[in-house]
Amino acid sequence: MSAPSTFDRSAFSVPGTGRGIVDVFAYRYLLRLLVRKGTLTRYHGSVLGWAWSYVKPGAQFLVYWVVMGVFLGLNHGIESYPIYLFSGVVVVNLFNEAFGNATKSIVNNKALVKKIYLPRELFPIADVFIAFVHFLPQLVILFAACLVVGWVPTVLQLGGAVVAIFIVLLGSTGLGLLFGAINVSYRDSQNLVELIRIFATWTSPVLYSFTMVRDSLPGWMYDLYMANPLTAAVELFHSAFWYPTTSQTMERPEDLGMFTVLALAITAVTMLVGQLVFRRLEGRFAQDL
C-alpha cells in the first residue's frame, strides 16, 4: 500500500477570502463603478431627481426648528439656533445614511456575492462613499446659510470640520462592516440598526445644547455622553459653522480636543472590530444568501 502523497498548498488561498479592506484599493475601478451606479440610480425615475437631496434635509430641518426652536423656545436660548440645528442635522444625516445603507449592502448585492468573487468590503464602503456624495448638497446649503449671516471661521475650525467628517465616515464604515456581515444571517440586525439611527439624533447635541446634558447628569454620565464619537463630530461642526456666526459668548464644551482624540480612537477600534467580524463571517455569505 503506497503512502499518501503530499501536496504543497502554500501557494493557494482559501476560495472566497482576501486581504480585507486592503483589497479594496486593488479594485478601485469597481469601487468607482459601484459609487457611480449608486449615485446615478438614487433618484432614477423621480420627477425632482437630485433636488430631493435638498428638499428632504430642508423639510427635516423645518420640522425640528418649529418643534424645538419655536414650540420649546430653544430659538431664544441658543443664539443663531437655525445654524446650530442644521450644522448638527447634516452630521447625523451623514452617519445615519452611511451606517444604514452599509448594513444592507451585502444583502442588496446578493446576486453579485453569490456568483463571483470580489472583495465583499467593496459594497459597504461604496455605500459609505455614496452617502458622502449625498451629504455634499446639505453641506452646500450650510455653507450658504453661514455666509449670509457673516460666517468667518478660522483654519483650525475648518480643520475640525474635516476631522468630524472623517470620524463619521470611519465610524459608520466600521459599524457597517460589523452589522452588514451579521445581517446576512440575522436580518433582525436591520431593526437594531434602525433603533441606533433613531437614538443617534437624540443622543448627540443636535436639537439641544450640550449644557442641558451637563447640568442634568452626574459628571461621569456627562463624560460618557461626550465620549460618543458622534457627539464630538457634532460639536466640531458647531465650532466650525455655528460658533463663528454668534457673538462668541456662547459656551462650548471643555476638553473638546481630548474628546476628539478619544472619538478617533473609538472609531479606529470600531473599524478594526468590524473588519475582523466581517472577515470571520464572509465565507458564509454566499451560502446564507
Automatic annotation (TrEMBL):
Q: Which domain of life is it from?
A: Bacteria
**Which sequence ranges are marked TM in the entry?**
84-107, 128-152, 158-183, 195-213, 256-278
As for membrane topology, the entry says: Multi-pass membrane protein
Q: Name one GO molecular function term.
A: ABC-type transporter activity
- Which GO biological-process labels does this protein carry? lipopolysaccharide transport
Q: Which residue ranges does the record assign to the ABC transmembrane type-2 domain?
A: 48-281
GO cellular component terms given for this protein: plasma membrane
* Location within or outside the cell: Cell inner membrane; Cell membrane
Pfam families tied to this protein: ABC2_membrane (PF01061)
InterPro entries, alphabetized: ABC2_TM (IPR013525), ABC2_TM_bact-type (IPR047817)
Keywords annotated in UniProt? Cell inner membrane, Cell membrane, Membrane, Transmembrane, Transmembrane helix, Transport
Q: Does the keyword Nuclease apply?
A: no
Family per record = Belongs to the ABC-2 integral membrane protein family.
- The protein here is known as Transport permease protein
Q: Which organism was this protein described from?
A: Agromyces ramosus
